[in-house]
Amino acid sequence: MDFIKVNKGKTIILSSKSPRRKQLLQETGLNFKIKTFPTNEDYPVELKGREIPEFLVKKKAIPFNKIKKNEIIITADTIVWAKSEHLGKPKDILEAKKFLEKLSNKKHEVITSVCFTEKEKQTIISESTFVFFKRISKNEINYYLNKFSFMDKAGAYGIQDWIGIIGVKRIEGSYTNVIGLPVSQVIETLQKL
Prior knowledge:
Elements: E1 11-15, H1 19-26, E2 33-34, H2 51-61, E3 71-82, E4 85-87, H3 93-103, E5 107-117, E6 122-133, H4 138-147, H5 162-167, E7 168-172, H6 175-179, H7 183-192
Parallel strand pairs: 1-2, 1-3
Antiparallel strand pairs: 3-4, 3-5, 5-6, 6-7
Helix pairs in contact: 3-4
């Protein structure tokens, strides 16, 4: 199916407060609306890896209980998974510092799950990208935390931000996934719905 036909007869609603997800979707040329509800992002402690964002995207879709026939609700969640540990959005600057120290000179996995909720069904996709950081000095970490926004980012960093530009050696997988939305996979899924 042609990309241009993705929007034909469908209303796409992005349920995300993330300015990065909004921008990524806008850059595709898709027409969409934004509608969000407050969501508690707690999850059962026994969940690991991709189970976490897959659980959360379904949870984020729950408030949309009156979906019209032509609507597609998109919810997304991104986590950083490092050494079997979930590094979410930091609670404060001290936790952000600990996160970045854990990521320094190591490989970690960024997992984004996206849920497409329609009147009759849900489709969930998950994408993983491996990110390799160089050794980041304490001075670099402190500079980043004092000069840039990090509180709304999984793992306390944005690959498109200063720390990502100077600290990421390489990635394996989707760059937009690390930003918060695996765009090509999202478009591919929308084409099938």
